[in-house]
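Hi Q.,

Before the meeting this afternoon, I wanted you to have the NAP prediction in hand. No need to reply - just skim if you have a minute. The sequence and ligand are here:
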Amino acid sequence: MAAEGFIGEHFLKKGTTDSGAKANAESIDARSLLVKRRRRSATIGRSIMEYQVVVLGGGPAGLSAAIYAARSGFSTVILEKMLPGGQIANASRVENYPGFVDGVSGMELGQSMHRQAEKEGAETVITEVTGIELADRGADSIFHTVKTTDQDVRGLAVIIATGSRYRLLNVPGEIELTGKGVSYCATCDGPFFRGKKVLVVGGGDTAIADALELSKFANEVTVVHRRDELRASRALQGNVLRTPKIQFMWNSVVESIYGDPAVSSVRLRNTKNDIISELAVDGVFVAVGSVPSTGFLGDSVPVDEFGCVITNVQLETDVAGVFAAGDVRHDSARQAITAAGDGATAALSARRYISSL
Ligand code: NAP
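Predicted structure with the ligand bound:
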């Protein structure tokens, strides 16, 4: 099979410290050893980059995948929309990531992972992924092409680690008042609510961790939950019950958020008796879970009914050379540590796949 690409211009990253991995990478069929370089396509006028491993997303899953791929001697790029670190960077304190006896700030954890990936030789491109064109093996193409807002990035292996984004309440006023009192990140915006009255919506770990974080700044924190039982872990529940500033409104949902130019009140409905009430607040922190960031996949890779990518235990999707890791995949435990483990597994599977080409 005559593969497309830069045949004959073999490339092995310098600085790989794992000599076994390097030897393994060197043994890979010459056709798969690509020169990573940028070129301009004469036909479509878009810049094209080529790597052996293309990692979509720079959270714990993507960064861990990049560390493992780069250490295997593969040219590796991380495509990230925002700052590398992912959602963990929003956590003020992470206390359940092994190795940090006294906890670590999410920002510090994310930045360390990113520095480690770059030290191993992975590159980072800040751009938004908009689609994937799968390799056409019938037409002798072994490259998948990742479309981004800036360029096309071709890779032998693609690891989808795009995580998830905040779920919206989808109530009137939410979008209009985002950034004007409506927030999805207590760690980022908490200090703006010093001495104020805030509402947290949700009953999971995020909502309770957010309520605890906000109690450092706000005078009053009210958690509104649609049921009368929290989903959050026992440990977090214990902490919140010991914090007098935090109170609960059970069996309640937010129906509207009001305010001009900034949030001033919310309309609430009791789900048991349908009684409507209005509560004056300065801020609304929405913490009702997340949805996987997989819209760009179209029908290229199978997803479940929630949009999460379906994989086997090796984190291979149905498509050869495409893998998924972290919150974006079906059945993820949605923890930073499991995401990091996923990244390593996906990169090792990608290594096996590239070796087989
Ligand atoms: P989550 O566990 O899915 O919880 C979402 C919460 O929002 C649930 O209480 C849910 O209610 C509620 N909810 C969902 N849709 C709603 C709607 N439309 N209106 C009102 N309420 C709604 O999400 P999460 O809290 O973001 O946590 C995600 C994952 O990250 C979890 O696995 C969690 O353990 C992990 N996490 C861990 C930490 C930590 O410190 N270790 C911190 C944050 C997150 P129901 O309960 O009725 O479904």
